[in-house]
Please model this.
Amino acid sequence: MPASLYIGLMSGTSMDGIDAALVSIDENEDLELLKTHSHEWPTPLHQQLEALALPGENEIDRLGEADAWAGDVLAESVIALLNKANIPTEQIRAIGSHGQTVRHRPHNQHPFTLQIGDANRIAAKTGITTVADFRRRDMAVGGQGAPLAPTFHKAVLSSPDETRVIVNIGGIANLTILPKDASIPVTGFDSGPGNRLMDDWIFRTRMEPYDNNGDWAASGNPSEKLLSMLADEPYFNQAPPKSTGTEEFNLTWLEQRGDDLVKELSPEDIQATLLELTLVTITQAVTAHAPTAERLLVCGGGAHNNTLMQRLQARLPELKTGTTAELGIDPDWVEAAAFAWLAHRTVNGLNGNLTEVTGASKSVPLGCIYPV
Model:
C-alpha cells in the first residue's frame, strides 16, 4: 500500500504564525516531511487572538468572529503549501488542524480547553477532509487535553538504544520522556514557561518580536531574587500529569510575582532572569522525572535561541544535548508534523492520546472529522 499524504497545521502559544507541514505516512506509520510553509496571521487577527487568551469584554462576539477568520487563514495556509509543493488537493488524505488555543483550564471544576479556527471553513475552502478539536476528546475521558505530541514522539523519535527526553520549547515548554525499555510507559508534561514570557517582555520594552539568538538576555545578569520569587510558583512542584498555558504565565503574572523588583531591575536583567526561569524549570523537570536519560533533543522556537541551548547543555552536562534535526525532523516542524500524524490516526480509527501523559481514563481517537 502506498504512503498517504497529510497536512498538519499548528499555531502554538507563541502565536507567531501558522506552521503548515506536508507529510507522507506509510502503512508502518513511518513519516517523511515533504514540504513546509510558514503563514503569518494578519496583524488585526493576531491582536484579536492575543486578546482572547485573557478574559475581557464582549468575548462571545469577538470569539465567534476570530474563529471564522482563523479558519479562513488556516485554509489559506493549506492552499499556499500545496501551491509550493505543486500537489493537487485530491492527493491529500486529510488535514490535521490544531487551531489556536485561546483558553486552557484543565483545573476548573468543569475542565475545558478551547482551540479556534473553524474546521468547517477549512474543509469547505480546501476541499480536503479536516480533523480538528483534538484536545477536548481527551478531556472528555478525564485527561488534561495536553500535551498530545508525546504520542507522536513515541512513534517517531524513540529508540531502544537510549532513553531520550524531547523538549518542545514553544510559548510554553513541554517534555516527553522516551525510555529505551519499551515496557516502561512514555510520560510527558508541561514544565512551565518557554519563549512566550521572553517574547512578550522584549516586545513591551524594545518593540522586537523575539530575542534573536538570546543575545539580549545574554547581555543581562539574572536576578537570583527575582528568579526565586518566580520559581516559587506552585505549578513547578506539582506532580504530573499537568499542563498549563499563557493564561497562567504572562506579564501580569510576572508583575504580580516579581512585585517591585520588576520596576527596579534593568530590562535586560529581567530578560536574562526569564531565560533562566525557562532553563531552571526544564532542567529541574528533567532531573526529577528522567534521571536515567542519555540524550536531550530540543524542538520548537527555543532551538534557535543559542544562549538558551548553550546554558541548557551547561546545566545538564551528563546529557548529549541537541535538536530533533539529529533524528531527521527539523525542530521547527515537529509539532505541525505531529498533528498531521494525529489526523492519520483519527481517520483510521486509531487512538491518539497516552493516558500516562494526560491522565485520561483511556486511550481514544482524538478530534472531530469534517468531511467534504
About this structure: The longest strand covers residues 92-105. Residues 59-85 form the longest helix (27 residues). Residues 100 and 314 are 34 Å apart (CA to CA).
